[in-house]
Design brief:
This protein is α+β, with helices and mostly antiparallel strands. About 15% of the residues lie in helices and about 30% in strands. The chain is built from five helices and 14 strands. The strands form three sheets. Strands 1, 2, 5, 6, 8, 9 and 12 form a seven-stranded mixed sheet that branches. A five-stranded mixed sheet has the order 3-14-13-10-11. The radius of gyration is 17 Å and the shape is globular. Pfam families: DUF5718. This is DUF5718 family protein. InterPro entries: DUF5718.
Length: about 270
């Protein structure tokens, strides 16, 4: 459990069209943003504090997804996760320093009556995943290593492997580079407990101001197949973050079909659904 002492946060609505596909756009109608393309909120998926209720359950696993008992609408949510050092001054977050990145599955249930985003994100142990292969990050400024990478995802059922999310460049995020980091810092300090959003500063205090955060920065759009096919017992979820200058989409698809990925320039996450 390498991230047991790290707070887990996610960014909602940072890829144009995803919220609409996931049936979540209506949740954010009342959320005001500075720009139409701006992400909607950040949400907690894990808080290392007994005071955090269900969010104190460690949900990450790099091999298995355990669906909730009543889930018939469980979807892969392919993302990049950033491991960031958090810098504080007098209880306020002053800076985030991304140090590594990895493939991430923000596995989510469609729960129309959920009051908070986090209620769809953590329903127990082994409910979402981060790759065991984390890639060193030089910086998140334009021109950095991560700019070359792409996100792909696949769904295997029986012998069929299908593309689940659109193969997307990481630079395709609505907010990225320093703009994203500055926005996350602002939300960590100032986001209110309103609508689907929560007071993140309170969770940071409850957790004793953790030194690091694992931050998933938004799910890609689904393919038509991904939008209409939900995870079932026996399926396999595959999320890949790969160097688009080193590998083609066809090469990544072939690796996904064999469930064997190259070691250089790739962070892969393969999870079996129980």
């Amino acid at each position: 459990m390498p991230f047991k002492h790290v707070i887990g946060l996610g960014v909602a609505g940072n890829f144009a069209g995803h919220l609409e596909q996931a049936g979540e756009a209506a949740d954010f109608v009342a959320v005001k943003t500075d720009e139409a393309i701006a992400p909607k909120a950040i949400f907690p998926f894990y808080v290392p504090s007994e005071e955090a209720g269900f969010l104190a359950t460690y949900p990450l696993c790099n091999s298995t997804i355990v669906p909730p008992n009543d889930a018939d609408n469980l979807q892969i949510e392919p993302e990049v996760a950033l491991l960031c050092d958090i810098h504080y001054d007098k209880g306020k977050v002053t800076a985030l320093t991304p140090v590594k990145f990895a493939a991430y599955n923000d596995c989510s249930i469609r729960k129309p009556n959920a009051k908070k985003i986090s209620e769809k994100k953590n329903w127990g142990q082994q409910t979402k995943g981060v790759s065991g292969t984390m890639i060193e990050l030089d910086h998140l400024a334009q021109g950095g290593v991560l700019d070359r990478f792409r996100i792909a995802s696949f769904h295997k059922r029986g012998n069929r492997v299908a593309r689940y999310g659109e193969d997307s460049p990481v630079v395709g995020y609505s907010y990225f580079h320093e703009k994203l980091l500055n926005w996350i810092i602002d939300r960590m300090n100032n986001q209110k407990d309103v609508g689907p959003a929560e007071d993140i500063s309170g969770y940071l205090a409850d957790a004793g101001y953790p030194h690091q955060a694992l931050i998933s920065i938004g799910a890609t759009r689904y393919t038509e197949y991904g939008e209409t096919n939900f995870l079932q017992s026996g399926d396999t979820s595959i999320v890949v973050v790969y160097d688009g200058e080193q590998y083609s989409q066809e090469q990544i698809t072939e690796m996904a079909q064999n469930q064997v990925f190259a070691e250089q320039g790739i962070s892969s996450l393969i999870q079996g659904v129980v």
